[in-house]
Design a protein that fits this description.
- By secondary structure, the chain is an alpha+beta fold.
- It has helices at residues 16-19, 22-29, 64-71, 78-91, 97-102, 104-130; strands at 3-7, 10-14, 40-46, 49-55.
- It has a four-stranded mixed β-sheet.
- Strand 1 and strand 2 form a beta hairpin.
- Helix 4 packs across helix 6.
- It is rod-shaped.
- 10% of the residues are buried.
Length: 143
């Protein structure tokens, strides 16, 4: 029996092997449409053709590192914020050595926090760069 997958406005003919089970279908399509991993699969017979539709479900994506980054609070790096404040004082003609001395603790804190952020971002990028894609479990035949 012929099979057709309806996905993202496309009609994709499928081989019997791929369309045989939901697992085969997911394995063949997931590298191209990762959202099928959590999608509901609905099959319907119409005019001698089995029409297959994937209904997307909301779900988490990525690994824990990415989820952690996405869940983190949005915040401006204190080093950048202090830089902008100092630049504004300079433009107003209010930046003097006395002002810088009075802000020394705040400057030291902003530099330390900025360096901590840089280490965290670098570590996060290393973790994300090591994430590997998940290959298809079955060869794609008839697509």
């Amino acid at each position: 029996m012929p099979y057709k997958l309806f996905l993202e406005g496309q009609e994709i003919p499928l081989s019997d092997e791929i369309a045989a089970t939901d697992d085969n279908l997911r394995g063949a399509i997931a590298p191209y449409f990762p959202e099928v991993g959590t999608a509901e699969i609905v099959r319907q017979e119409k005019n001698g053709i089995t029409e297959i539709r994937l209904i997307k479900r909301a779900g988490t994506k990525g690994n824990n590192a990415l989820q952690s980054l996405m869940a983190s609070e949005t915040e401006v790096n204190p080093a950048l914020e202090l830089t902008w404040q100092l630049k504004q004082l300079e433009q107003q003609g209010n930046l003097s050595i006395e002002t810088l001395i009075s802000l020394q603790d705040q400057i030291d804190n902003a530099v330390k926090t900025g360096e901590d952020w840089e280490r965290t971002i670098t570590d996060s990028l290393k973790v994300l760069s090591k994430c590997s894609p998940i290959p298809a479990q079955f060869p794609i035949i008839g697509i």
